[in-house]
Specification:
The chain is α/β, with parallel strands linked by helices. It is built from six helices and ten strands, in the order H-H-E-E-H-E-H-E-H-E-E-E-H-E-E-E. 26% of the residues lie in helices and 30% in strands.
């Protein structure tokens, strides 16, 4: 069977109903966000190593996270855990602007190369502690966390959600599950969804 966007989309369609997300998955060249030696596997529905002990997440999980954010195209998004820049590139097609923060400088540098190669211009990359968010550009209509928080979503990230904003993250409580947090007039409500497996969210102490 041919490897490529069509093959991947045929897998995703039974799990993802947001057509804008599916079109973004088709349009963003995942092969530009993996090491060259893994380019032949880029369109497989599987995570792949990107160096520094990190991975580019399984496309199905990425698509589901994008769908859960319910983006319309007008939002400012905070992306925590840039990695290769792939998730940020997808969010950039679905929102107005993306601020993407990564604790590892080497990964952020490579993500900049990848995003330029893919022609993505509406992503601002920042090196820093994603668990603290990025207060200078808050609040955000949507926050994506691409690493597993232990026990609960970091409070600083919930605090940076705009009214009506959505946050999606894997949270580890005995098992990892995707959760969606929403800021309402009554506070922040959290709903659990499917089990997933992400690397831990790294924070800087002090």
């Amino acid at each position: 069977m041919k490897r490529g966007p069509d093959r991947l989309l045929s897998t995703l369609r039974s799990h993802v109903s947001d057509q804008r997300v599916l079109e973004a998955m088709r349009a963003v060249p995942r092969d530009l966000f993996v090491p060259p030696e893994l380019a032949a596997e880029a369109w497989d529905n599987a995570p792949l190593p990107i160096g520094a002990g990190q991975t580019i997440s399984q496309p199905l999980v990425v698509a589901r996270m994008c769908e859960m954010l319910e983006l319309t195209g007008a939002e400012t998004v905070l992306d925590v855990g840039t990695g290769s820049g792939y998730h940020a590139a997808l969010l950039a097609r679905l929102a107005r602007h993306v601020y993407s923060i990564e604790v590892r400088k080497s990964l952020s540098r490579q993500a900049a190369v990848n995003l330029r190669a893919a022609g993505v211009a509406n992503v601002t990359l920042v090196v820093g502690d994603g668990s603290r968010g990025l207060l200078e550009h808050a609040p955000y209509e949507a926050i994506n966390i691409a690493a597993a928080a232990g026990g609960a979503i970091p409070p600083a990230l919930c605090d940076q959600l705009a009214p009506g904003g959505r946050l999606v993250a894997p949270v580890e409580n005995g098992e990892q599950r995707l959760v969606v947090a929403r800021r309402t007039e009554a506070g922040v409500s959290v709903t659990e969804f499917e089990r997933v497996r992400f690397v831990p969210l790294v924070s800087r102490r002090g």
